[in-house]
Amino acid sequence: MALIPRSLRLATLVMPSVLRAGVPRACRVSCLHTLAVREPSTCDRSLLQQVRRQCLRRHSQKQTRAGVSERVMEICKLYNPSGHVETKGSIRNYSVKEPLTLDMIQQRVLLVLKLYDKINPEKLTVESHFMQDLGLDSLDHVEVIMAMEDEFGFEIPDGDAEKLLRPADIIRYVADKEDIYD
Amino acid sequence: MYLSGVIMSKLPASTMSLKQFMLRTEAIKLYRNILRQLQHLPDKSQRKEIREWARADFETHRHHEDEEVIKVLIMQGKKQLEELEKTIRRAKS
Question: Does the distance separating the beta carbons of A139 and B31 come in below 8 Å?
């Protein structure tokens, strides 16, 4: 990644096919692009468009969906440090969430805890402490917090997780994160 | 010196030293990272197996008191976590 100069990287944002073009054409486009970005009024837009059209004509690629997705994946791989990119993962629709109230959060938290086999459902109340009342240890606590993350769909960082020692704390934390104030 | 002696005796006997506390936190973080990696694994029954195996490993070494032994075990655990990560990546690709 470092071998590709910054200008080329910028150019690939504009036009992914530039990557295949080799350096000289890219520099031309990228210089013009940088110029256009920095001083839009002074740059000769027509020249930039001509150069772009030239590049497109030379490759004579049809914009197929496969071609576009291939180019997008190339760029993503370059920008992704671990180099591990998925096109199809499990899809979770976050744009639509079920309506959450405090009561519902409480029910869901208690349900998850009841389903956990190391907890005795009779002893479980909202205020019962995991370690002292329910007899869980710290590894069990980690598992409980992971189950909560799964249930509500967001990650709970380590620092916050170690403070959540009762169901009431978890309910309050989830309500804070989801901005529920009733 | 006498004053600090008096204050120290007011803490409960089960209080850990800072080093012990940090090591404990390291171990808990390791367990959490293992569980998080397992979320990426597509097969649910395998997930359960590996989770139980990891938990059993942690339980067998629960009793250690010596700092050095605990550190070595945590390093081993981290190496195993890396191996797990690589295997999961390969399994998914």
Answer: yes
pLDDT winner (highest mean) among A45-49, A53-57, B36-40, B75-79:
B75-79
CB-based contact A139 B29, cutoff 8 Å? no
Band (B3; pLDDT cuts 50, 70, 90): low
Please tell me the number of Cα atoms within 13 Å of A167 on its side-chain side. Answer: 22
Q: What is the pTM of this model?
A: 0.59
Distances (CA, A) of A123 to A110, A129, A169: 12, 10, 17
Phi and psi for A127 in degrees, rounded to 5? Answer: -100, 0
Count CA atoms within 13 Å of residue A170 on its CB side.
Answer: 35
Q: Which residues of B touch A162 (CB under 8 A)?
A: 25, 28
Distance between CA atoms of residues A29 and A13, nearest Å: 11
Q: Would you say residue A20 has pLDDT above 80? A: no
* ipTM score assigned to the predicted complex: 0.80
Question: Which residues are CB-neighbours of A72 under 8 A, at least 6 positions away?
Answer: A16
Q: What is the helix (H) or strand (E) element at residue B67, kind and residue range?
A: helix B67-92
**In the numeric block, which tokens belong to residue A135?**
């007899």
What is the average pLDDT across A114-128? 89
d(CA A173, CA A161): 10
The one-character DSSP state at B16 is P
